[in-house]
Design brief:
Residues 84-170 form the Bacterial bifunctional deaminase-reductase C-terminal domain. The protein is of the alpha/beta class. The chain has helices at 47-59, 67-72, 111-122, 133-140, and strands at residues 4-11, 15-17, 35-36, 44-45, 60-66, 86-90, 105-108, 126-130, 146-152, 160-161, 177-181, 184-190.
């Protein structure tokens, strides 16, 4: 069974977006390089970032996000982002009325159901959980194996937190990846086995 990874680009003070859901300069490192990260021609990173991010992207089978992210992106027009095979959306509402039922999106109620569905769909590939409120809930439920963050040198001061509304301490292991890139620091923390009980 694949790992469950919580992931996002984040400001040094822990925000994934500002109060208006805008990422500001958080994605500048994804467009400021000269090595294409995908076929879009838009996403270009440094060679260092490519060598770290591309193998990770290639291992993702399913992405879990909340309904808020789904709505903000207009459901990526029914095509999962970054070549991911499926998206599991945590929501208390049904799919939009005009939603294509053939699109590889799955709408579930609750984070435990989302992780179960994502693991079933992903097989031995990674399950990526978007950081923010849903990611924080998955972490609080003890279902995250690893936290990945791309730390961008900017201070937001306020906004949408990487760990959402988590209000308890969670112990992570020492980082096993620390890679400085251009305008980004790639970090990976295994979640301490008893981290959700701390």
């Amino acid at each position: 069974m694949g790992k469950v990874v919580m992931y996002a680009s984040v400001s040094v003070d822990g925000f994934v977006a500002d109060e208006n859901d805008q990422p500001g300069p958080l994605f500048d490192w994804l467009t400021g390089g000269d090595v294409p990260l995908d076929d879009s021609g838009v996403v270009k990173v440094s060679q260092t970032s490519y060598d770290y991010i591309r193998p990770y992207w290639d291992r993702i089978g399913v992405t879990i996000c909340g309904r808020h992210v789904f709505d903000l992106t207009d459901g990526w027009d029914g095509t999962p982002p970054s070549g991911v095979a499926h998206v599991v959306v945590v929501t208390h509402r049904p799919a939009p009325e005009d939603w294509n039922p053939q699109a590889p999106f799955h709408f579930v109620d609750g984070v435990k159901a989302a992780v179960d569905k994502a693991r079933e769909l992903a097989g031995d590939r990674l399950v990526e959980v978007a950081a923010g409120d849903v990611g924080g809930q998955v972490l609080a439920a003890g279902l995250v194996d690893e936290v990945r963050m791309d730390v961008v040198p900017v201070v937001f001061g306020s906004g949408k937190r990487f760990f959402g509304s988590v209000d308890a301490q969670h112990l992570l292991a020492d980082p096993d990846v620390v890679i400085p890139g251009d305008r980004v620091l790639h970090l990976r923390y295994p979640v301490h086995p008893a981290g959700h009980e701390a």
